[in-house]
Amino acid sequence: MASVSHVRRSAPRPKVSPRRSLSLLLGLLAASGCAHSTATSAMSTVAPNPDPRVGLRAGKFDAAEATWNLRVLSETRPSEKFLGITNSDLSFTGHYAIQGSYDGFQVWVSTNPGQPTLKTAFVCPASQSDVSVYRNLLFVSGEGLGGRLDCGTEGVQDTVSKERLRGIRIFDISDIANPKNVGNVQTCRGSHTHSLLVDPRDPENVYVYVSGSAPVRSPNELADCSRAMPDQDPNSALFRIEVIKVPLAHPEQAAIVSSPRIFNDLVAPPRHGGGPADLAEIAAAKARGEFIINMMGQEMVLPKGPADHLLDSLVKARNGTGAPTAADSATLREALPGIIAKLIGDRQPGGSGPKPGPTQCHDITLYPAIGLAGGACEGYGLLLDIRDPTHPARIDAVSDSNFSYWHSATFNNDGTKILFSDEWGGGGQPKCRASDPREWGADAIFTIADDRMHFQSYYKLPAPQTPQENCVAHNGSLIPIPGRDVMVQAWYQGGISVFDWTDAAHPKEIAFFDRGPIDSTRMVGGGSWSAYWYNGVIVSSEIARGLDIFELAPSGFISQNEIDAAKSVVFDQFNTQGQPRFVWPASFSLARAYVDQLARSNGLAAGRISAVRGSLNSAEKTSGAARRDALTQLATQLDGDARGAADAAKVRLLAGAVRDLAAASS
Amino acid sequence: MRPWHIRRLPAAMLAAAVAACSSASHGGLQTSPQPVGGGRSSSAAIAQARADSVRNPYTAADVYFMSGMISHHAQALLMAGWAPSHGASAAVQTLCARIVNGQKDEIATMQTWLADRRQPVPEARPTGMKMMMGGVEHTMLMPGMLTAGQLEQLDQARGTEFDRLFLTFMIQHHRGALSMVKDLFASNGAGQDEVVFKLASGINVDQETEIARMERMLIASLPASSTP
């Protein structure tokens, strides 16, 4: 696999001895030819400079590539029927990767990630064909106007038609080579995305949260679909999501059971009123004694013009002249909330005024293990309580003036942080050019405390892309590195970026893959739609080029032990937006991963680190009771170490991992 | 020349007029073809566009939407481009910078789409789309677009007054775009093309979101004067 970063490293430089060139060349060969290579240069924690993603040669299937701390295992072109059709999201079951496409879905067998093979190419057009699996059921989103109930490819020409499918298709994939359509649930706005909720307390059903962002269809096509504002029609299809209940024994009876209005009264929302610049501006204005108004829960500075005007009115009202006095200012300060309330009151829905928040979500990530969901909904990021699956309740909302369109959410494994992405430009535009602001089309990272989201930082793909590459934050998933928050994310033609957001205020890229543009002369849509970690590998759905599979390469940022521990987390099925909690089985890799992290952060004295490594090595060579006793003793020592360690919490994690390993050794 | 809103035309007449425009028959409704600025059409792209259109044929309504939205967006660029020189507040300048960045890219997408399908590519004219009607040249304003008088009014405003007028006019402008999307999806066979559907749906959600944001900003600037 050609790797530009390697090629650059081996490029001739002045004053390099032939011997050094030779060793570089050998290093290059080793790195590209040997899957287990751990070339010392790869242990660097310095990003390659210049960034090898800049200036990559264009090409659909022969573009130049740049990789850093990743290995490409395979690049597989779309199957014949799907060539030239937009590939979309991914879902996983067993050894199968299910790849959505605007023309249906493809099922890949990834038993050998170096050579995935096609199992099924199922033609059934519908954009975007967002996919999820649960046991033997496959759910597929349909939103576009050309989707047909019969999976035909001829589209639907009439604006009103009984043949159109906009909503959720349900397939039985017990025989995955022959998916069987067992049910369809039609919705008013179709399904742009959906998320699967497995309620731990309800083994009989699964729930599908449907987000539809396309226009509401005619009531003549689907009864009761209303596009009126809610104050004119309480049954409006706007300002709501749909919850579908799927009885597992009878998927054909799947139906909408509730249409929660999670946006209602979104008038007290953004506690985080904007980006750092907005907050700083308000703080500065307060310090200057300017008038602050509270607009639908969001603080704003009353501009000087209106403020002066109101003050002058007060002077006139008391038949005074000249400059307003401090008493006038005080009067205005007191009267402002009333003035604003009157203004907002005059501009409620039905009038020409602001609508009460977003009309829909783009995507919702459900994390049932902690009872929370993150809703990315137009101009807001929502935190939802989902403990009652059919009645999700909003518990917090944030907005951000740097965000154009809240697109998706990812929790960290502890549920103490949430990351939202902004799909500025809708995914079809080049928003990673050097001239595009770094805060736009980025991820925003929040900590969660006391049911409130607190803004920490932005993360955007660090490498500028060309105007020929559609690029913006898109779909990603956590990588189960224990004790850290590491994520892989797709950036369309910006490629894929792996970053660490353990320190929420300072996210940092630690690996990447990128290709040159599809076409050097014009913007042709393509790139990675989603990049997800699944059972040890990173699978990327490439819109135009097919399916790419990668593995993490050890580096100064991630050790082999951490990778091995990540690989120890294995799922039977995986839907990224139905986020599962990672639980690491006891293993020497897990313990060593924590030791590596303590070494990296100087969280434990160097002498103790090497002693602990030695103890682990010795214990691994024994078995049974001897191993158990050695590990138990080590765990007790670590309990003591924790008291004086710089990173006591991590040492306690390590002690717990060693104790679990001891328990597993008997 | 008196601008007129094509929205007032009966739908059937509109469809007929737009259908005529693709055959460029003299005396019909005709956009003035211009060299494509944003995108070039390679033969491969044209071939791909043809392949796409066999599967999902585009209609006159799609062509009309993509053509009309070019001048609609062009006017937004003109309006937003005034923010720095007209003393707009920091918040309005940020909004304008995003409008300029976003809509410029979308114009390129629409021009490329039209060119790939060998359709006339309208010039990005902020004052409306030029077309021939019965042998006379008309300038057509798409829904929500500002009249020449409104544009002048905005151009003369400064500071807080510019903010207030800009937000008022841009909300009107965005609502017009939403009505264009609604008209598009209300036309038989329209919006089946992937690019058109994605762009129109995107405009729908983006501008709806932006309207809500602008309305919040507008309220903050209202107390100085009467409701517009």
Which protein chains are joined by the largest interface, and how many residues does each one contribute?
Answer: A-B, 67 and 60 residues
Count of helix runs of chain B: 7
**Can you count the beta strands of chain A?**
32
Which quaternary structure do these chains form?
Answer: heterodimer
- Tally of contiguous helical segments of chain A: 10
Largest sheet of chain B: 4 strands, mixed
Low-confidence stretches of chain B: 1-40, 224-228
Overall helicity of chain B = 55-70%
Q: Describe the largest sheet of chain A.
A: 9 strands, mixed
Widest sheet: strand ordering of chain A: 1-28-27-26-25-29-30-31-2
User: What is the CA-CA span between the terminal residues of chain B?
Assistant: 26 Å
How much β-strand is present in the residues of chain B? 5-15%
Strand content of chain A: 25-35%
Q: Helices and strands of chain B, in N-to-C order?
A: EHEHHHEEHHH
Unreliable sequence segments of chain A: 1-41, 267-275, 344-355
What spatial form of chain A do the alpha-carbon principal axes imply?
A: globular
Can you give the mean pLDDT of chain A?
88
Global structural class of chain B: alpha+beta
Give the N-terminus to C-terminus distance of chain A in angstroms: 45 Å
Outline of the structure:
Chain A is of the alpha+beta class and 666 residues long. Helix content of chain A is 22%, strand content 28%.
